[in-house]
Amino acid sequence: MVRQEWLSSVVGRLQLEAEPLLFADVRRIERRVHECMSSVPPPTTPVETLVLRGVLVEFAWKLGKSFHGRFHRGDVKSCAFRPGPELQSFFASDCHDPVDAFKHWVTQYFHAFERSHPISIAERAAHLIERDFDRPIDVATLARQVRTSRSHLTRSFKARFGVSPAEFQRMMRLVVALERIRHDKVDAVSLGIGYRSKKNFYRAFMVTGMTPTGFRSLPEDRAMEIIRGLRTTLRLR
């Protein structure tokens, strides 16, 4: 027997996580998958275990194919990498737990993907911004760190992420603020993400159309939906 409410919950959770995973950084995808899989309700019978394995195989196929297509903006004909062969590891896995088998596939697929698709200058810069998001940004310094010119970095970054490095940092700070504000004090959050002025913090936060207090009052699922939306916009993990 398969519990209908369990299957609906599994499918709903994967659908909710599909877009954030699709836009995750290839170097952080494993962590995102672990977070995603921790929220998938476990099977309780052998039949449910078999069904979950089938659902995750399909999810793996769609994720791998879509991730590859997004990377190339839909033009994959010139790329020799093919998502299909890596999926065989899912079937060949010795893991009895389908979630563990899926994690094993993720490790193999995205390591192969990264070898075939060297990280770009814009993505290296984004990684540095994410790491030091609470520090003032200097695009010229950032360009030197990734060994390119300021103008080339700015053009490449906007083509890849749709925003400038400075705007990317502001939105990155907002993502972290949204994640922390429900549990920490406003002053602590403001300072922790690099704002020395509470006024500037409130101005940045109002991009959401809410005050920190208003965001705190949202139901957990609605708050997480907003955070995931911002992460998807930035193509973060």
Please, could you describe this protein's structure?
This protein is an all-alpha fold. The protein has two domains: 4-116, no CATH class; 121-234, Arc Repressor Mutant, subunit A. The chain has helices at residues 4-22, 29-37, 46-71, 84-92, 98-116, 121-131, 139-145, 150-161, 165-181, 186-192, 198-205, 212-216, 220-234. The longest helix has 26 residues, at 46-71. The two termini are 36 Å apart.
The profile of the biggest β sheet is: none
CATH architecture classification of the largest domain: Orthogonal Bundle
Shape: flat
Low-confidence stretches: none
CATH class of the largest domain, named Mainly Alpha
* CATH-assigned homologous superfamily of the largest domain: Homeodomain-like
The count of DSSP E runs of length 2 or more, i.e. the number of strands, is 0
SSE string, helix = H, strand = E? HHHHHHHHHHHHH
Estimate the strand proportion: under 5%
Q: Please work out how many helical segments DSSP would assign.
A: 13
Task: Walk me through the topology.
Elements: H1 4-22, H2 29-37, H3 46-71, H4 84-92, H5 98-116, H6 121-131, H7 139-145, H8 150-161, H9 165-181, H10 186-192, H11 198-205, H12 212-216, H13 220-234
Helix pairs in contact: 1-2, 1-3, 2-5, 3-4, 3-5, 4-5, 6-8, 6-9, 7-8, 9-13
Summarize the structure.
By secondary structure, the chain is mainly α. Helix content is 69%, strand content 0%.
